[in-house]
Amino acid sequence: MPVLIPRNVDELVEVFQANPQAKLLAGGTDYMVEVNLHGRKPETMISLRRVKELTEWSVRTNQSRITIGAGVPYADMEVGEIARLVPALAQAARTVGSPQIRAAGTLGGNLGTCSPAGDSLPVLAALGATVHVIGPDGNRDIEFADFMVGVKKNSLQPSEFVHSVSLPLVEGWQGYAKVGTRNAMVISTASACLVRDSDEGFVAIALGSVGPTIIRAHAAESWLMKSTSLRGGSQLDPSIAQEFGRRVAQESRPIDDHRSTADYRRHAIGVLAQRLLTRSFS
Amino acid sequence: MSIYIPVSGAAQSHEMYSLRVNGLVHEVKDAWIGESLLYVLRERLGLPGAKGACEQGECGSCTVIVDSKAVCSCLVMAADAVDTEILTVEGLGPDGALTDVQSAFLSEGGVQCGFCTPGFIVAVHHLLENNPQPSDDEIRESLSGNICRCTGYGRILEAVRTVADQRRQNS
């Protein structure tokens, strides 16, 4: 029952191929809760913390995309250059747990756990992120929409791991909003990320905690793009924002659980959508 | 004694490993792989300063510093903390003497039952190390992962302001 500690990506590929049953350990903020409280019995673990390549991030030279390593912690996305380039991701990161959790938890860990309440995930969905994955057969890219396939289920194959996430840098407005029972240390009851590309007149909205996966409200997006101009300098009719919220709520698929009710979540997600759209024009 | 068995190129930390805590190397023997750093500190290394309450990273009473970051020790797998520098509340002051943060908690009345106090002390040290003159909002946000059910936080915030003022005057 060892902890295997690879020091670089090549060692990680080799160790994970030799131990396909092993569990990957990133920041530990999800996994250790299962061990401490839910009787999870770890066997072979592969620790990702020393794999330096996973903690790096870079911007493509033509400034069109940012690539963020799976091991980058939320604390590093909240402020600085990543926050400037992808403000919605910074906003989402800042709502995760507490400073202690954000120092440990990582983007890759959020994708590994793949909870519908994962705070970074609506941002990845709204921006159309590509997940770079490495496995025994080499690299492959998975669109986020194909990556998350169910509640805490992703499409990683055995011995595959998330290397990094690539996001387009969008001209325009983007924001993340979340409803929970407190301002700090809270798992979302409903969350949403809205991206408005004011050059292209394009909008995307992705919803968290209101369905088994992150939901892109495609019908509401199309309706909005037909109903009003989203380009820079245009005005928003408040009744359009209200109707957008109503249509987004219709596309959510929330459930009753220990954290909230389906009715409340459906209401809240509509309010968040309306609010984000309104903010994008202010 | 640290056990690193190279396995297909990668190092391996087994049920016997060593941790560097407050500058001293401690051997951990016959441990279970699932043990948290909190458990190992308290039950194996005789360092009971970090407290265990929620065991899910919500209360902050187990806060320690690992490689210059304040984290919840209940969410760190101890066997994965080999090769890190761990600092606990016991290691903040020289030879058991109170630090200025601890003194301010006493003088300002930031302690009632005391259970959450070690976690707060570590978090406040970490805050003031990285941001010597925090605003009230910055203090609140940086302590948002530490829960106190007695004080109502007012006197804890006052203690932080007191230390920040003292350090500014002494610098």
What topology does this entry show?
The complex is a heterodimer of chains A (282) and B (171).
Chain A: E1 3-5, H1 9-18, E2 23-25, H2 31-37, E3 45-47, E4 57-59, E5 65-69, H3 74-78, H4 80-85, H5 87-94, H6 99-104, H7 107-113, H8 121-127, E6 130-135, E7 138-143, H9 144-147, E8 148-150, E9 153-154, E10 161-168, E11 172-179, E12 190-197, E13 202-208, E14 215-216, H10 218-227, H11 238-251, H12 262-280
Parallel strand pairs in A: 1-3, 2-3
Antiparallel strand pairs in A: 4-5, 5-10, 6-7, 6-10, 8-9, 11-12, 12-13, 13-14
Chain B: E1 11-13, E2 17-21, E3 24-28, H1 37-44, E4 63-66, E5 69-72, E6 85-87, H2 100-108, H3 117-130, H4 136-142, H5 154-170
Parallel strand pairs in B: 2-6
Antiparallel strand pairs in B: 2-3, 4-5, 4-6
Helix pairs in contact in B: 2-5
3D architecture notes:
The complex is a heterodimer of chains A (282) and B (171). Chain A has a 5-stranded antiparallel sheet. A 4-stranded antiparallel sheet of chain A has the order 11-12-13-14, with helices on both faces. In chain A, strands 1-3-2 form a 3-stranded parallel sheet, with helices on one face. Chain A has helices spanning 9-18, 31-37, 74-78, 80-85, 87-94, 99-104, 107-113, 121-127, 144-147, 218-227, 238-251, 262-280; strands at residues 3-5, 23-25, 45-47, 57-59, 65-69, 130-135, 138-143, 148-150, 153-154, 161-168, 172-179, 190-197, 202-208, 215-216. The radius of gyration of chain A is 19 Å and the shape is globular. Chain A is 37% helix and 24% strand. The mean pLDDT of chain A is 96. Chain A is α+β, with helices and mostly antiparallel strands. Chain A has 2 domains: 3-168, Uridine Diphospho-n-acetylenolpyruvylglucosamine Reductase, domain 3 (2-Layer Sandwich); 172-280, CO dehydrogenase flavoprotein, C-terminal domain (Enolase-like, domain 1, 2-Layer Sandwich). Chain B has 171 residues and is of the alpha+beta class. Chain B folds into 2 domains: 17-91, Beta-grasp domain (Ubiquitin-like (UB roll), Roll); 94-170, DNA polymerase, domain 1 (Orthogonal Bundle), CATH 1.10.150. Chain B is 32% helix and 14% strand. Chain B has a 5-stranded mixed sheet, sandwiched between helices. In chain B, helix 2 (100-108) crosses helix 5 (154-170). The termini of chain B are far apart. Residues 1-9 of chain B have low confidence and may be disordered. Strand 1 of chain A pairs antiparallel with strand 1 (11-13) of chain B.
